[in-house]
Amino acid sequence: MRKKLVTTLIVAILLSFGSFSASAEQLQLSPEFWWSARDDGPRDGVFDRLLGEPNHTQVVINNWLESRHALEFDVAALTGKRIDSGVLNVCIERWGTANQILELHGYDGDGVLELADYAKSHEIESQTASHLGDGLMTFDVSDHVSGIAARGIGHAGYNLRERFAGLNFLMWVVDRCGLPGGPELVIDFSDPTPAELLNELISRVINLNIATGISNSLDAKLENALAALEDAKHNNDHSAVNMLNAFINHVEAQRGQKLTDEQADLLISAAQAIIDKLTA
Asked: Which of 45, 146, 258, 273 is the most buried (most CB within 10 A)?
């Protein structure tokens, strides 16, 4: 118990003061795909046709039809990286006087825009658009990009929609608004060492607040892997990999019991990212 408390305090101090040695970098991305699609009605969430990739994408919603906008960015270079922040900048040109609530939803992209992508719903953030004419709107996508990078997904996908509020004939368009490539995804990231990633994974296990026995067992495997990496006398990367594989097996055994599928997936992907670094 004393060892776990010490580990918790050390990790908390490192995280709070940002004492990791990885250098920060920034990536600015233009979308690989930037299209809209329409549900021709009746409005049922099933999208019937792609509208193409013009500079202005009209998005209309009323009690019969709806159009949504979708974008996909190639983020394969971020696999295994620590995401410090991520923002999506989109220029919105509005016509009309009433305020509109715009919702940004995220999904795992695959490099191909399909009609089904416009119906995927995982709301990241909603904002009220009240300006007239051009206005830049910025959405915080840090957690979404972090999850994409941790799981090794090659593309980050987003769809932008207006929150339905009854009969509504107002229109808005996605414009360039001074952004040369249209919407842009700006990501600050760093390339952490395996030891830094292990400290973050230990903190993640602690923060899950799972049953004490399971948590201690998972912690022990990670702490042993960390000790192997920090052993200055021997190159114990192989031992660390073995401990991480044992950790993954233990997580799999607790899937659907003490751990949800989502928790298990996150822990396994984080451990696998460390293994990949050690065996590259």
From this structure: 273
